[in-house]
What we know:
Number of domains: 2
Radius of gyration: 21 Å
Distance between the termini: 68 Å
CATH superfamily of the largest domain: Vaccinia Virus protein VP39
Number of strands: 11
Low-confidence stretches: none
Helix content: 25-40%
Shape: elongated
Mean pLDDT: 94
Number of helices: 11
Order of helices and strands: EHHHEHHEEHEHEHEEHHEHEE
Amino acid sequence: xxxxxxxxxxxxxxxxxxxxxxxxxxxxxxxxxxxxxxxxxxxxxxxxxxxxxxxxxxxxxxxxxxxxxxxxxxxxxxxxxxxxxxxxxxxxxxxxxxxxxxxxxxxxxxxxxxxxxxxxxxxxxxxxxxxxxxxxxxxxxxxxxxxxxxxxxxxxxxxxxxxxxxxxxxxxxxxxxxxxxxxxxxxxxxxxxxxxxxxxxxxxxxxxxxxxxxxxxxxxxxxxxxxxxxxxxxxxxxxxxxxxxxxxxxxxxxxxxxxxxxxxxxxxxxxxxxxxxxxxxxxxxx
Length: 286
């Protein structure tokens, strides 16, 4: 293999990705090359004529090949940014989505209204830990408990907590919903971004999602609402007086989830994401 310049490599990568109809080919090729060369985007454009080491070319080509086949960029480079923090992501965890940032931001706002020295928060289905870790990172008086049924997901979440130095304020528990929680534990806020895709819709998701992301983190049962029913019903026993439940919901689910919550929760509010979709539902325990 003969050596190539940075510009040539980007050109080759973009051509390959375009041929396979990958969205944003220039961005993807640039991010992958930055990852391989351990540089920033500006470096690529200011050093276009520089030659790249043969081993780095091989590594880059392998990653471009993976991306061309539909493997998500975040899994290829092994990380994803979420609310200005960098998270390790592997195919064992869902890739954190921008709309979930909205859920976290609203839980931070809710926490500001709770006048206590210590705020106890429970995150159900923590995955990469992005919600739990951001809450511990940005709410300095928060003690967070994070649950997940997947041992592999918890391992990634613990690595993320460690790299962002919040392990002293997060407890990770392998649990199917509330199963392994102590009955006596009570929380000021319970938060969750549960699986909410109806089982029959999994097949029509983008290749990147259905073929690469963990099914267990996507499948919300026949109508996509299985986990909402369980969380709303069971959370009542674990929320402190005056406490809150905050949930991320899928497209078209906010009204049904609000209705389900209305029996035990008051002041129910729905927040829209940047696309104008109802994305977060939260309420206060009656």
